[in-house]
Structure formats: structure tokens, C-alpha cells
Amino acid sequence: MDKWKTLKSEYINKSPFGNIRKDSCELPNGIVIDEYYVNEYSDWVNAVVITKENQILLVEQYRYAGEDFFLEVPAGKKEGNETDEEGLIREVREETGYISDTKPIFLGEFMVNPATQNNKIKTFLLLDAYKKHEQDLDDTEEIDVKLYDFDCFGELITTNKIKTQLFTVTAYFMAKNYLVENNHYK
Questions:
Q1: pTM score over 0.70
Q2: What's the fold here for domain 44-181?
Q3: How many other CB atoms are there within 10 angstroms of residue 72's CB atom?
């Protein structure tokens, strides 16, 4: 199997939220797709945050494209020269007011949607979190902080009792698997 060739590339739109690029691509079999659209976004970091009381910390916010409110793990993009861990810790603190004295545990890095997006998400686990600050939200953010029992949260996902999105589901089950494999709980 061979990669596709980019014959031409132009930006349709550029904004602080991301860019839309239109490419002309040639497939290995010679077929040319004249209009293949790519969404360019910054890479993200997210974390499953678990409190000392074994509760998962989630943020609930309105998502315009989904036309509803969704429960999500705290997430965002790095700013300036931040490391992944620094960006993650800042995002969690700003969105929730929670911090942890433990170092974030890296769980994995994944493409978000490689068919049409170029960004990755790095997922972490943050243990023993506790509330120390008030939220420090951007003008465009309105976020409610929610706590759920970590052990029961998977059932809420698998029975569709909550509205969430795929990277929260993936992060939760990765964190649960990590905790089981490392004997944090049974």
C-alpha cells in the first residue's frame, strides 16, 4: 500500500480555532480527488482526573456542533512553550479549580480523526486531585464541574445514561485499565 500524493493545496479559511485546507490528491491507483478537505487543529491534551475520594472529575459544557450539553474529561491545547504536562495541569486548574500533588501519568497519544483532521490528543491520568482554586475560565467558556464515582462511571457510558464524546470514553477506559494493571484497585 502506498501513500496518497498531494498535487495542490490551498487554505479556504484560517482562524485561531483552526484552518480548513483544500487539497488535490492522487491516489496510488491514479484516481485524483480534486477537493479533499482537511481540518487543521492544534494538538490537545486531556486527563482523567480522580480525586482522593475516588471520584472522576468531569466538566459539563454546551457543544455547539452537537447542539447539547456534554460531560467530558478536562481538555485543551497547550499555550506558548508549555510541555504537555504543564498544559494539562493548567487546563485542569482553570476549568475545575482542582490540582494534584502527583505527576500526570501518560496513557497514550492518538489521532483524533485522521481522515479529515491533522491533530492528536495526548491522554493522561491525574490521581489524588483536590479542589484548591476557583475556576478561571475564558470569556467563551461556561463550564460546570461534576463528580461521579469512578468505578460506576463506565456503566453510565455503556448504558448511554450520560451524553459524552469519544475521547472521554476512550480516556476513561484507558485509565481504568491502567489502574487495574498497576494494582491501584480491583
A1: yes
A2: Nucleoside Triphosphate Pyrophosphohydrolase (3.90.79)
A3: 20
